[in-house]
Write a structure and sequence with these properties.
By secondary structure, the chain is an alpha+beta fold. It contains 14 helices and 19 strands. A six-stranded mixed beta sheet has the order 1-2-6-3-7-18, with helices on both faces. Strand 4 and strand 5 form a beta hairpin. The radius of gyration is 24 Å and the shape is globular.
Length: 437
């Protein structure tokens, strides 16, 4: 089957998926899983729809190989964030093809990858291909956008369905330019989330007599201003070191490496610099409940991200570097969400296969290990199956990483038709490379 035909098939499938509104909540992802299941069954896959809620089922399809061997999983999710139709050039559930792109909610995040993975897998099976060794899995989950319960349920309740040695998920892949070098990022790790609340303590009083009170809000203000322009000390984890080494920079000199990178690629450097240290972003504040009452407490909520492999202790250590001991400053810290960062090995047979694919389509480009500041369902698979090597990779050349980034969860979300075709080619090529046949 020609590349053009496969590209057309992926476009048609993506249009179908976009036209099924799976905004989460409420999701209703089963409506999208059923046409995918029909395609995969017709191609020869063993397919199961599984989950607690019949309206929100996960899909797992398996193509068994001719002999035992590694299992490659192609992972995606079919829920999306909500969309307001106002302001869109083409409606969020139109799936319209215009200006060389497919438009609609989920076009980038991430029904495009679902379509590409399913078309790649089905086309291989229809051609009679079977893995020489191991199995090929297609996994499409419900509810990634809210709390990742789709992947969490599968890995906890049905690990027999989804256990795999290699996993390709969302996270990176669009081309970017670092100076004269073309780079396709491969997300090998994700930062952890340790959100907390800063509480400044004072003494309440009537607002008409501020001198007889101790305004906690004023105590909070300098805590917040100290975050401005502050960068925590470097925490150079193995994944972070691999990023700099992949760019030909010295991981033992992160200051010098970032200075060189900033001069070479000023738009790219800020995107990867958070991977090398703890970050603090105050996002919400609260104090008095009355206009005429000086607050005894003032609260600031801080979104804190830590490099993979580090945890709460690292967050507190870097916070104390900034603020000192809270016992001496009239403030306390209360942690809320705590999710440790996660990572896969930066060198693996899957990385080798991705490098070979990139070299074939663009000999001058390189694959660069990257660390995501956010997190995805890769974290769930890495935790459930420690031997699993999970990477985020959806290759794009028609749209760069800088062009794609503002479209996530945004108005006019779209994906170039050519990039859909490229992704189908990638997943077909990597499956054959890793599993043989």
């Amino acid at each position: 089957m020609s590349a053009a035909t496969l590209q057309d098939e992926a476009v048609a499938l993506l249009q179908t998926l976009i036209r099924i509104d799976t905004s989460n909540p409420p999701g209703r992802e089963t409506l999208a899983q059923e046409p995918l299941a029909a395609l995969l069954r017709a191609a020869g896959f063993e397919v199961e729809l599984a989950g607690e809620d019949p309206a929100r089922l996960n899909l797992v399809a398996r193509l068994r190989g001719r002999a035992p061997g590694p299992v490659l999983g192609l992972l995606s999710h079919v829920d999306t964030v909500a969309a307001d139709p106002r302001g869109w050039r083409h409606g969020p559930w139109s799936g319209e093809v215009a200006d060389g792109c497919v438009w609609g909610r989920g076009a980038i995040d991430m029904k495009s990858q679902t379509a590409a993975e399913v078309v790649a897998a089905c086309s291989l099976a229809r051609e009679g291909w079977r893995p020489e060794r191991g199995d090929l899995l297609v996994i499409s989950v419900a509810d990634e956008e809210v709390d990742g319960s789709g992947a969490a349920w599968l890995c906890a309740e049905r690990p027999d369905l989804v256990r795999c040695d290699y996993l390709i998920n969302e996270g990176d892949g669009a081309v970017t330019h670092v100076g004269e070098q073309r780079v396709h990022g491969v997300c090998v790790a994700e930062k952890g989330v340790f959100r907390f609340r800063l509480i400044a303590h004072g003494v309440a009083g009537h607002a008409s007599m501020p001198a007889v009170a101790d305004n906690a809000l004023l105590r909070l203000a300098p805590l917040l201003t100290q975050f401005a322009g502050h960068r925590a000390a470097w925490d150079m984890t193995p994944a972070a070191r691999a990023v700099l080494a992949g760019l030909g920079l010295d991981p033992d000199d992160p200051d010098g490496a970032l200075a060189t990178l900033t001069a070479r690629a000023p738009d790219f450097a800020p995107l990867i610099e958070p991977a090398f240290h703890v970050t603090f972003a105050p996002t919400m504040v609260a104090a008095s409940t009355g206009m005429n009452t000086i607050p005894a407490e003032a609260h600031a909520w801080v979104d804190c991200r830590v490099p993979p492999g580090l945890g709460r202790d690292a967050a507190l250590r870097r916070l104390h570097d900034l603020r000192g001991d809270p016992a001496d400053g009239g403030w306390t810290v209360e942690f809320g969400e705590q999710t440790e960062g996660n990572a896969s090995a930066t060198e693996s047979p899957l990385m080798d296969a991705l490098r070979r694919f990139v070299a074939a389509i663009d000999p001058e480009a390189v694959c660069l290990p990257t660390v995501s500041s956010g997190y995805s369902d890769s974290r769930t698979f890495r935790a459930a199956f420690p031997e699993c090597v999970a990477y985020g990779f959806f290759p794009q050349r028609a749209m760069t990483a800088e062009e794609a980034a503002p479209l996530f969860h945004a108005v006019d979300e779209r994906i170039p038709v050519a990039d859909l075709g490229l992704a189908v080619d990638c997943y077909r090529t990597v499956a054959r490379d890793l599993l043989g046949g």
